[in-house]
Hints:
Keywords: ANK repeat, ATP-binding, Hydrolase, Kinase, Metal-binding, Multifunctional enzyme, Nucleotide-binding, Riboflavin biosynthesis, Transferase, Zinc. Residues 96-335 form the Protein kinase domain. The protein is an alpha/beta fold. It has five domains: 2-83, Serine Threonine Protein Phosphatase 5, Tetratricopeptide repeat, CATH 1.25.40; 91-172, Phosphorylase Kinase, domain 1, CATH 3.30.200.20; 179-340, Transferase(Phosphotransferase) domain 1 (Transferase(Phosphotransferase), domain 1), CATH 1.10.510.10; 383-526, Cytidine Deaminase, domain 2, CATH 3.40.140.10; 533-736, Dihydrofolate Reductase, subunit A. Helix content is 32%, strand content 18%. The chain has 25 helices and 26 strands. Strands 11, 17, 18, 19, 20, 21, 22, 23, 24, 25 and 26 form an eleven-stranded mixed sheet that branches. Strands 1-5-6-4-3-2 form a six-stranded mixed sheet, with no helix packed on it. It is elongated, with a radius of gyration of 35 Å. The protein starts with a helix and ends with a strand. The model is unreliable at 241-263, 348-352, 354-386 and 711-715 (pLDDT under 50).
Amino acid sequence: MEELMKGVNTNLADYDKRTALHLASCEGCTEIVVLLLERGADVNSMDRWGRTPLSDARSFGHQEICKILEAHGGIDPMGLDSQTPCCEIDSNEVDMTGGTLIGEGAYGEVYLVKWRGTEVAAKTIRSSIASNKIVKDNFLKELALWQKLRHPNIVQFLGVLNHPDRLIFLTEYLRNGSLYDILQKKGRLDPLTAVAYALDIARGMNYLHEHKPHAIIHRDLTPRNVLQSEAGRLKVTDFGLSKIAQGKDVGYKMTGGTGSCTIISLQTKLMFQGGPSNRGEDPEKLADKRAYEDLRPHLPSIVYPEPVKKLLRDCWHKNPDRRPTFEEIIGHLEIIQENLQQKAITACYYAVVSWFLRLSWCVSCHFSLSATKCGGSDIKQELKQDKIDDSYYIRRCVELARKAIGHTSPNPMVGCVIVKDGKIVGEGFHPKAGQPHAEVFALRDAGDFAENATAYVSLEPCNHYGRTPPCTEALIKAKVRNVVIGMVDPNPIVASTGVKKLQDAGIEVTAGVEEDMCRSLNEAYIHHMLTGKPFVTLRYSMSLDGHLLNQLGEEAAECGGYYSKLLQENDAIILLSSALAEKSSFPISKEPAANQPLKIVLLKSSNSLMQIPALKDNADSKLLIISEKDKSLEPQTGQEGIQSLSFDVISLLEILEHCKHQGFCSVLLDLRGSNVDLEDLLKEGFEQNLFQKVVVEVLPFLCGGQESVLKYSDLKFHAKKLTSFVSGSSVLLEGYF
């Protein structure tokens, strides 16, 4: 500025004959362009390639500067060539005849060729349309646009091939293929990988949207246009349908389709799910439904973490102004990624846990490599690629059934889906013992659509009169054509009679679809039906060095925590009075609308009930105090809602017999309290084979030289089907006896 004020010549040029006006025009410095013109700069000065400032401004897409230069008499002697990238490559350096066809784009073919010893991708425009001036103009504009882009998540432009007959440009070659190829090969991705891929795409798209002076709109963001480098990074490519987003841009005609709802949210959905959920549906009709009828894809909780579901729904908001920008999407994804990484770090001490478990009671644990992946439940582990088939609908039945966790005992949890012409027309689940069964609710939901439809049920429909009529009659009356069930009901009253009744009525029945998942859903009910005894889960906490603990991990008892869910799932929980001595309240499930379990408090030692603070303020009517006959129960056991029992000697077997007579299917033994009491219970439990399942919470700290809670070290057991999960900062192990 000072030099200009002194009167310096504004037309001074470098060795390429490029003036300050050339540089300001190509860099988009509008104010400097105006200042130089006011100071007498030659608007049409030419560099040694014959380019004027207007040529540069057009080449780099600076429309405002173009108008200023044109208003001052600027010309562009290069014409259309000014929009061709400056980085020209001699055609003799690339042997196109020896290239390998690796793909086809909107404008032409893509070949794998070698340039200066390096494999690169050569993108061509079809000869049949190269003569079309509009197409050629768009192609050259694409190159002029692409040559300015520099970002780790954008495929790198290398140059345009100076070929006399064909339009060809070179980009870096990414040998790992496209995201489409990855999904076809691997199916559903694990959450951490899916989020990392989504971040790559979002960062690349944010760079395009934040491009100056005008945002770049991709308009063809499909899995085929996202490529992967050898380092595993995803890069956005193919700007054949890109366009400068200007206020009043008319005359731009797209030469290809834009795909169906091709936005970052659907890319993320595909990665989590492994494929589209709309197979068999017309893409254009589906797009219309999503645009005009506010139809959105189903996001099952067994596949999508809650933060991911929320982000996807925000991206699909009906009001475009409410949808997040890519910059905001990146922020959300980074938080989700950080949380997932923290869980993965916690999971890294699985191997350490397996060794330390041997120190605690000499446990012999058998890890299955296929079952120790972080962050899954039985449903998550069984869920494969989300293709629309019988398995898909049974998995949906299981998802519906789980809505009634803790409310159906002694009945099983059951879900039902009615499907007609490939679409779900009715859904239902059994909400509570005494209420109508899942099939009834699903048929009501389907209405007349149930006729000639297929009913999917997680458990064989009942065929007897209880508190509700048989579900087989409801299905027959609704005139369903087929019934697919997850498993046969072990209840002797049903025991395949439901299947036979349906078959006798001319209904085709398929059984055993996703049977393992359905059995896992109702493991307590099945055990109760087969043995007449409650299903007992043993729970305890331990440190990394094998010491038993009287505490829970962070957030374990909060809503969504594993302990809160255990309380929701079980009909009763057995606690030692010694474990409640310092507790101000009894443990309760904090899950929404949870049905609280019966609290069974064992008064084995000489502890006075007065020493249990929770008893004084008990507002829970579901409380049972069990003591030995030589121990007197204090007056507060007579208060409303508190029951009491006395045994000669407190026996776990007798307690479970009482639970059996109460109709309980599931009981949780919470292993906290004095060592003497615990040892007696455990010894009896293992000697009598009273335990069916074990849940171990391993907290991330060491106890050092402290003595273990239990001294009974001769106890050995084998945990089968051991699986592992992350819960807050702890690791959970689940196994069966």
